[in-house]
Specification:
heterodimer; A: 290 residues; mainly alpha; disordered N terminus; B: mainly alpha; 14 helices; 79% helix
Chain lengths: 290, 331
Amino acid sequence: MSLMAPVAHSASRPRYMRRRRLNLVMMSLSLAAAAFGLLWLLAILSTLVFKGVGGLSLDVFAQSTPPPGSQGGLLNAIVGSLIMTAIGVALGTPIGILAGTYMAEYGRHNRLTMTVRFINDILLSAPSIVVGLFVYEVVVIRMGHFSGIAGALALAILVVPVVVRTTEDMLNLVPNQLREAASALGLPRAIVIQRIAYRAARAGMITGVLLAIARVSGETAPLLFTALNNQFWSSDLNAPMSSLPVVIFQFALSPYTDWQQLAWTGALLVTFAVLALSIAARALAAGSRK
Amino acid sequence: MTDASLQAPTLLLQPDAARAGRLRSFRLKDNVFRHLTRASAVTVLGILGGVILALVIGAWLALSTFGIDFFTTESWNPVTEKFGALAPIYGTLATSLIAMLIAVPVGLGIAIFLTELCPPVLRRPVGVAIELLAGIPSIIYGIWGLFVFAPFLQATLQPFLIGTFGSVPVLSTIFAGPPYGIGILTAGLILAIMVLPFVTSVSRDVFETVPAVLKEAAYGIGCTRWEVIRRIVIPYTRVGLVGGVMLGLGRALGETMAVTFVIGNAHRISGSILAPGTTISASIANEFTEAVGDLYTSSLIALGLILFIITFIVLAIARLMLLRLERQQGS
């Protein structure tokens, strides 16, 4: 009888019905919010495919950026992006891993670690254009001209916080018994960290590096006044260097339709490269957790 | 600790020369490695210090020339070399405000969906899809915003707003003017999409910290799902939610490329949010390489300094809030 009672009562209780209606409304709204979020992802990706695929051809990968009205591709921009990203990651990753190591292994609860963690989390979301200004002030003015190496340095500064964060988190997950067992064999601390802790946390640390690559390979703002742009093929780090995001910026805002087409094609390439990297990073992280 | 564990064996086993040498090299490498890691940790602090120092030095000329007027004047004239930061500051705050007004409720909605409604099978794919929005580079939002989103708004939302609110006293000013497509509102909407994943993922993470016992108790006394969220989950996670919102705000304030495409780059303050404007980051991105003269460059760097200080404060508050939630968890 008590099972039937609430149902029988509910119709005659306006307050209960109102609560249920409110619940239904709010839950529908949250469903709508999720649909709304996914809609934008679909809208952006489908636009990119729709507008970008038409311009994909071998020329895109074989020729440099053209003057308006003639044939060309994105070769110099792709190579420039690869070079600067590679150098940026190569410079930023060791600093990030070592700093993360200090925080997780040597100074787990000391004041330096607390401060670095706080500052690092802020750098993680700090506006990247400010990093561009910093490198301009410190490197470009001193060298007297824009250069690929300045661009790579700006990217390195963006790599560091991402790697610090993941390295620290991943090393903190390594069980202490592993370290204790190694120390009990008489291994010095440095060897324990390098041979035991790093090995146990390897998948997570690689994830961090992949995320960092994904983050910087789409960055435009810090390159605008460090590497600038270069219309021609160049692998000279001492000269201005082209990059995909900057070329997209320049070409998209130009009045020439063939430049705009190249911008869309470049946008397609960058987006899918970045998304593939972040999905790979996620898959790696999920795989290592099991 | 390290020293003790290394010295003990040396004392116990009468060491021959080879062993002593190896132990010495162990100790040396150990120290080198430790100092290397410490130096790297300090480097992170050094980056922040360096950024602030470089910006202050670069901005000094502009700040000492214009003084407090720099923050209170709207004029931005490269020809007469009169620079004031009010219009970019206004644009930055206005676009971020619009972004947060939309992203916070929607982000909370998605987080509620993911933690309370979504069938477990879909939870991960939907969550990852939303996070991929954060992975899309900001230049892509820019090009998409300029060529797809702005024309769409120009044809639909903006005429609707102008038509609907045209005769309402205050709102007619806010939604005044021809539908340009680009402008403050468009930039705000794009920013909303961009910060949505940040608000969502922090909210989802803090929602998951609510002890199941609390929720079960609420369900047990007959609460509806919404009542559990409204009365238990949100009050319990309030501090963390504020942290998540501030994190999103920090992102919105500093966002550059997407805004540069759709803001219109006009150094003026208009009552209408449909009018073109500019933000701090967009001004820097647009004008820095073309800036002629020390004062012009310095003024742009001063803008960068203002932006950095604002975002630093906002992000610091975000972190402190999230730390407080963590501590609450720990105790």
